[in-house]
Amino acid sequence: MAAELDVRPTKKLGQNFVHDPNTVRRIVDLSGVGQGDHVLEVGPGLGSLTLGLLDSGAHVTAVEIDPVLGERLPATVAERAPEAAARFTVHIQDALKLAAEDLADQPTHLVANLPYNVAVPVVLHLLAELPSLAHGLVMVQTEVADRMAAGPGSRTYGVPSVKLAWYGPARKVAPVPRAVFWPVPNVDSALVGFERAAEPVSDADRDEVFAVVDAAFAQRRKTLRAALSSWAGSGEKAEAILRAAGVDPRARGEQLGVRDFAKIARSKSLPPFV
Ligand SMILES: C[S@@+](CC[C@H](N)C(=O)[O-])C[C@H]1O[C@@H](n2cnc3c(N)ncnc32)[C@H](O)[C@@H]1O
C-alpha cells in the first residue's frame, strides 16, 4: 500500500506502519471494541488498523498529523470498506492539541499504534481532555509500556506510571515483534491497556498532584524531604507537609503510590500550609 501511495515514512513522526493483518486483528480483538463503540485512533497512517477497527462495526474518529497520509484516508476507506465510510471521520491535526470540542462525538475507546516519541504525552493529554474516554489499548515501545504499567517499588516506576495511575489501572497486555512493521523499527513494541477508574483517586487538584510527582522523580535518588524542598518552599516545610500527609520524609518517590502523592498535594493545600 505504501509503495502505491509513494509514501516515504519519516522517523520524526514515528511512522512505522503495521503491515501484518494478523497483528491488526489481534489488536482489534484485544481492544474489545465492537458494533456501535466510538473509537479514537491517533496516527492512522496508511489505515491498516483503521480498517480493522471499522471491520468490527465501530465508529472511528482518526487524528493524523501528516496531511499527506490524512487526506488519503477517506479514499482508502471508501475503496476498501465502502459500507463503513459513514462511520469514519479523520481530523488532520496534532493529537497533542486535540480538544473535546474538535470532535463531533464522544469517543469511549482509544486504540492506536502511537508515534513512539510522543506516546505518553498523547495518552495523558487525551485522558485529561476527553472525559468520555474510558478504555484504551495502545502500542508503544516496550520500555515505555513497562513504565506505563509499573507499580511502586519497581525499577521502571516513574512519572508516566503515576500519572497514568491517576486516571485508572494500566497493564502490559502483549509483546509485538518488530517484524510486523514497515519500516522495521530498531525497538521492540508492546500493547498497553488502561481503564478510567469509575471513581477519582482523590479530590486533590490534578495539576497539584502532578507537580508533586514531577518534583519527586526529578531527583528520584533523593529522599522526599530533599526532592520536595523547592516545591514546598524549604526542607522544613517539605518535612512538615509530608508528616501531615502520613508519608515518611525519608522515603523516596519510587516507593509511593498515586494516593500518597495525592495526600501530599492535599496536605499542602490545607492549613497550616496555606
Ligand atoms: C507508528 S505510526 C502508526 C500508523 C498506523 N496506525 C499503523 O499502525 O500502521 C504513527 C502515526 O502517527 C502519526 N503521528 C505522529 N505524531 C502525531 C501527532 N502528534 N498527532 C497525530 N498523529 C501523529 C504519524 O504520522 C503516523 O501515521
Automatic annotation (TrEMBL):
Q: Which domain of life is it from?
A: Bacteria
Write the record's keywords in alphabetical order, separated by commas: Cytoplasm, Methyltransferase, RNA-binding, rRNA processing, S-adenosyl-L-methionine, Transferase
Q: Which InterPro entries match?
A: KsgA/Erm (IPR001737), rRNA_Ade_diMease-like_C (IPR023165), rRNA_Ade_Mease_Trfase_CS (IPR020596), rRNA_Ade_methylase_Trfase_N (IPR020598), rRNA_adenine_dimethylase (IPR011530), SAM-dependent_MTases_sf (IPR029063)
Recorded catalytic reaction(s): these are: adenosine(1518)/adenosine(1519) in 16S rRNA + 4 S-adenosyl-L-methionine = N(6)-dimethyladenosine(1518)/N(6)-dimethyladenosine(1519) in 16S rRNA + 4 S-adenosyl-L-homocysteine + 4 H(+)
Locate the Ribosomal RNA adenine methylase transferase N-terminal domain: which residues? 23-198
Which PROSITE patterns did the record assign?
RRNA_A_DIMETH (PS01131), SAM_RNA_A_N6_MT (PS51689)
EC id: 2.1.1.182
Compartments (UniProt record): Cytoplasm
Positions annotated to bind S-adenosyl-L-methionine? 16, 18, 43, 64, 94, 113
Identify the Pfam families for this entry. Answer: RrnaAD
- Into which EC class is this enzyme placed? transferase
Q: Which family does it belong to?
A: Belongs to the class I-like SAM-binding methyltransferase superfamily. rRNA adenine N(6)-methyltransferase family. RsmA subfamily.
Protein name per Swiss-Prot or TrEMBL = Ribosomal RNA small subunit methyltransferase A
Look up and give the organism this protein is from.
Amycolatopsis tucumanensis
* Gene designation per UniProt: rsmA
